[in-house]
Amino acid sequence: MTNLVLQTVGISKSFGAIKASRDITLDLRPGEIHALIGPNGAGKSTLIAQIAGGLAPDKGKVLLDGEDVTGLSTAARARRGLGRTFQISALAMEDTVLQNAALGALGARGGPFGMFRPALSDPTLRDVAESALERVGLADHAATRTAELSHGQRRQLEVAVALTLSPKAFVMDEPMAGLGGEGSKAMTGFLDGLRSEAPILLVEHDMDAVFALADRISVLVYGEVIATGSVDEVRANAKVREAYLGEEV
Q: How confident is the prediction for the chain on average, in pLDDT?
C-alpha cells in the first residue's frame, strides 16, 4: 500500500536485557483510527516515544507521509505534521489557554518556543490558535489560566495545540485517562469526527472507547505485536483474550 500516512518498519529497542520493542511494523492509513492496546509494561509508551522522536530506536525506521523521519527531532517531526497529545499533560499551566495554543502555532512555523508575546501579537498565529480553540470548544476560555481548566478541558487543549500544526497524523496517548464516563463519551465523539482531518494512532486503555472508534487494533505484549485486525477479529483472537482482554470480552 502506497498511501500510508505513518509507518514503523522493524522498530526495535532494548534497555539492557529488556527488549521493549521487538521488530515492530505497523501503519496508519488515511481517515482511520488505529488503536494500540496492551497490558501495562507492554512497551506502548516506548514505541510512541520512538514514533514521536523522543527516543531513538536501536534499529528500524519511522516514515511520515513516505519520508524517513527516524533521525529527526520531536520538533522537526511536529513541523512535518506529526501531532501528538501526551498521557501526562505537557501544557504550560501558568499560561493562558490562548498562549498554549499560540505556542503550538509558533512551533509549527519553526519559531523558538517560549516567545508568547510575539506569537500573540502576530495576527496569523493568533488566528490559527483561536481557530483551533474554537474547534475543540474552548474559545470562551481563551483568557483562562490553563491550571484552572478541568482535566477534560486540558485534554481538549492538548488536541487544540496539535491542531495548530495542521497535522498529517495524530498520535494520542491515552486521551481518555481521568475523564470519567461523560468526559470519555464526549472525547470519543470528538475523535470520531477528527479522523476525517487526519488519521489517529490511538493508545488507550478505555476499551469501550477503543471498540467504538477503532478501524483496526494492534495488540502489543512484551514489546511485540501479537495481533492486528478489525475490532471483531481482535476480540475473537484467542492469544489476545489470553494476554489482555480476558474471557469476558
A: 87
Q: What angle do CA 176, 208, 65 make, to 5 degrees?
A: 65
> What's the pTM value of the predicted model, to 2 decimals?
0.86
User: Domain coordinates of the chain in residue numbers?
Assistant: 1-79+205-249
Render 95-156 in DSSP notation, one character per residue. Answer: SBHHHHHHHHHHHHHTPPTT-HHHHHHSHHHHHHHHHHHHHHT-GGGTTSBGGGS-HHHHHH
Q: Higher pLDDT residue, 121 or 219?
A: 219
3-state secondary structure 34-45: EEEECCCCCCHH
Amino acid at residue number 216: R
Number of residues in the chain? 249
What's the one-letter identity of residue 139? Answer: A
**Cell numbers representing residue 194 in the block:** 477528527
Q: What's the rounded mean pLDDT across residues 219-228? A: 95
Cell 492469544 belongs to 239
pLDDT at site 109: 62
Residue 190's pLDDT band, with cuts at 50, 70 and 90, is confident
| Domain range 1-79+205-249, its CATH number among 3.30.420.40, 3.40.50.300, 3.40.50.2300, 3.40.50.10490 | 3.40.50.300
Are 84 and 45 spatial neighbours (Cβ–Cβ below 8 Å)?
no
